[in-house]
Amino acid sequence: MPERLEERVANLEAEVARLRNKLENDSSSKSWWQKIAVTFADNSAYDEAMRLGREYRDSLRQSSTEPSDE
C-alpha cells in the first residue's frame, strides 16, 4: 500500500511539473488579446457590428449635447 501511495505522489508531482512548464511557456507568448485579434480579420459581420456600435455611441453623444426643450 505505501508503494502505491508513493507511486501516486510521484505521478502527481510529474503532472504538476508538466503543468508548470506549460504555464511558463504559455505566459511568455502573446497576451490573450493578441491571440484573438486575428480571429476577426476580414469578417464582414464583425465590421458591421463595430460600425453599428460606433453609430450608437455617436447618437448618445449627440443627444447629450443637444439643448433640451425645457
Which helices and strands appear, and what pairs or packs with what?
Blueprint: H1 2-27, H2 32-36, H3 44-65
Please give a structural write-up.
The chain has one domain. The protein has helices at residues 2-27, 32-36, 44-65. The protein is an all-alpha fold. The chain is built from three helices and no strands. The longest helix has 26 residues, at 2-27. It is elongated, with a radius of gyration of 26 Å. 76% of the residues lie in helices and 0% in strands.
What's this entry about, in short?
By secondary structure, the chain is mainly alpha-helical. The protein has helices at residues 2-27, 32-36, 44-65.
Task: Give the mean pLDDT.
Answer: 86
User: Using only CA atoms, what is the Rg?
Assistant: 26 Å
What is the domain total for the residues? 1
User: How many beta strands in the DSSP annotation?
Assistant: 0
The helicity comes to: over 70%
What percent of residues are in strands? under 5%
How far apart are the first and last residues' alpha carbons, in Å?
Answer: 84 Å
Order of helices and strands: HHH
Low-confidence stretches: none
From the spread of the alpha carbons, the general shape counts as: elongated
Taking the sheet with the most strands, its summary is: none
Question: Number of DSSP helices?
Answer: 3
Content-based structural category:
mainly alpha
